[in-house]
Amino acid sequence: MKIYQGKVVLFLHAFPLNSQMYRYQFEALENEGIPYVAVDYPGFGCTQTFPSDYTIETLTDIILYQLGNQGVKKVIPVGDSMGGYIMFDMWRRYPELIDGMVFVSTRAEADTEEAKKARYATIDRIQKEGKDFLIEFMLDAQTSPATKNDPKKMELLKCIMNQATEEGIIKALKALAERPDNTGLLPSINVPAVVIAGEDDEKVTPPDIVRKIAEGIPDSQFITLKNSAHLPPFENPQDFNKILIDFIKRVWK
Known about the structure:
By secondary structure, the chain is an alpha/beta fold.
């Protein structure tokens, strides 16, 4: 397969993780000779916290500035959860950069008023108690029974989540709460797309929620992955990697 200069797969991570949630994809793409870029949002992983509050649009612009500096002209973004929201914004404002899209465990809808209030209540609690309660909650809510039964994988996931700063978590929660509704954008997406849900995702983005993205995009495929909840690339990398690499080869044939 020939990958032309200036084209990369762009990995956009879920909240409250960082780019290391895609560690199993890095190895698979390297074995195939497929170039990729993986980013950490401000306050997550290796990236310093942003000095002020920010929006999803701010994240998009930061990421695209970094890509421009690396000479990237075209991307296939892979976005899990929060990463999917950045993908929608990329398409809204910079569609010429995108050759294909891989949506994972995400939704097109904005937060309901109830969900928004819950995010701000979480912010208040973090300011009083710290982040540990949130990490424990996310470890439970985002993982499948198969993942929970793998102590090494759960410990690694906890380490990745714990790299997030409390300030970074708080600012990300605000950005998530204030993101726009993207349902009206779906019919305009005219590049190939694959939409992936975790079969066991009952608490965050159940498959029926994720499916709505595929139903709205003309050239799209919907897939549910077994032994996965909210983090299919991390929980079931073998099946996820096959889908991802097949999709990349189809788009960049």
